[in-house]
Amino acid sequence: MITATGLDVAAVRADFPILSRRVRDNQPLVYLDSAATAQKPRVVLDAERRFYEEVNAAVHRGAHALAEEATDAYEEARQRIATFVGGHPEQCVLVRNATEALNLLAYAFSNATALAGAGRVAAREAGFDGDPRLVLGPGRSIVVSELEHHANLVPWQQAAAKTGATLRWLPITPTGRLDLSDLDRIITRDTAVVSITAQSNVTGAITPLVPIVERARAVGAFIFLDACQAVPNSPVDVAGLGVDALCWSGHKMCGPTGIGVLWARAELLAAMPPFLSGGSMIDTVEMTRATFALPPQRFEAGTPLTAQAIGLAAAAQYLDGIGMARIADHERHLTACALAGIAELPEVRVIGPTDLVDRGGVVSVIVDGVHAHDVGQVLDDRGVAVRVGHHCAWPLNRRLGIAASTRASFYLYNDEDDVAAFVAGLAAAVSYFRGR
Amino acid sequence: MRLDSLYQDVIMDHYRRRSGHGLREPFTAESCQVNPTCGDEIRLRVAVDGQGRIADVSYEAAGCAISQASASVLHDAVCGLPQSEAMIIESAFHALMQSRGTDAGDPEVLGDAVAFAGVSRYPARVKCALLPWMALKDALHRSEGISR
Lengths: 436, 148
Hints:
With about 425 residues, chain A is of the alpha/beta class.
């Protein structure tokens, strides 16, 4: 079936071996948990396998034939991944996942603050040139939002605790969108950094970036974007966003686990002190000191994530071959179907926007009188895989006055039948628990 | 049907009419437990009398049918028992939950709690069933500390 948006879902599904699996007494799998992790097309698995079978060697060290080929393959992968978001390869640091990328950024501030206190010479020897914008302390602030995944909240709590900086946040509206009415009072002259999600993993609300970026720029604060729910699902061009850094996890865009990307402006990468240290990230080492490689290698200590990077590059190639705009349209269509189906169920309430304006392809719901765990159990019993719980955004749940919700998330390999299975499963949960 | 083997009638009955629900005074110790994967919470109090007998268990909890029913079953199972006997039930329940569906549970020891045998086949739900029992164990431990 080719959808209105021109995506041949049956052909796409054939690329993903796991989607033909059966679960729970031989029922077809309906996978609606891609916002947690996406399934992998065969081309990604083949790319990793081919690397291990034909090329594998440690990169950026050794001078033998395989070492050269592996290094080339790794750097070509970086190039391909950078192209996916319109960035330069020198600006893409390959890390384990978005959580590591956000920690790298948060540690840049706490490390810079500690090193600034150690004196200029010591700071320089440790790889920090003294950029005052990275130095925190009482009287400076870090701004996040109430929508954040724990990965873009807890590292900043830590940075605030270590430096004495104040943590502030943009609140949300009852429909789970960011409330910018107090923007100018929250992002102020004392703000060092604004780190914000591009799209909520719970409500699906897409962040209105322009006013936030403008405000951050106006006060001289860095602006970072947690793009975990954006890069896998829609076209993203870093040049047009106006942010200083952006990160995402490869496994949510059909890539392997264990690989994520931090894209950052060259000037920021040059200013940040090292995060993890050790091999690969140095120029020279003596017993008491070291000098450091230029970015991105400066932030890639240890043997790089080589096969993972090659797998992620294959995923980028695969998704670009289908077209990110087409994937975004497809998810939008499925989201519309889901919202329309849910609207027919009086016992089910959507957590987040119920229209399609600035909204991504995750739909979280509360079923009146049935806990999310029990809803998820009924869905699982029908072979439908969804996420239940607080979705690693506990403060958001508290703010909305809910303990847990049931989330379906859509991707390129889902179709209208999958949405129908979700809606039917919700109805089944209502009748199962009401009927007993 | 798979769902019915998980949500047995005993479990659904306890979920609908939770025994001993609500926080009461007096109490000797209290424990708050949370399931970090789903955010389910319980605050549970024990009142232990001078003879080491559990006079009352009271609780407030937010969570799924399994965790709510488990708290209710716990209340009925241990109220009035010496602490040592309550801990024998706790151990048996813990073992049942870890059994991955291989154990039906001993009704002589567990009473209504054998209805949770089906839960052990769903590793993601075992924590739901264990949450109130973890709170009980912790509260009794604290209560012992207080009485010393």
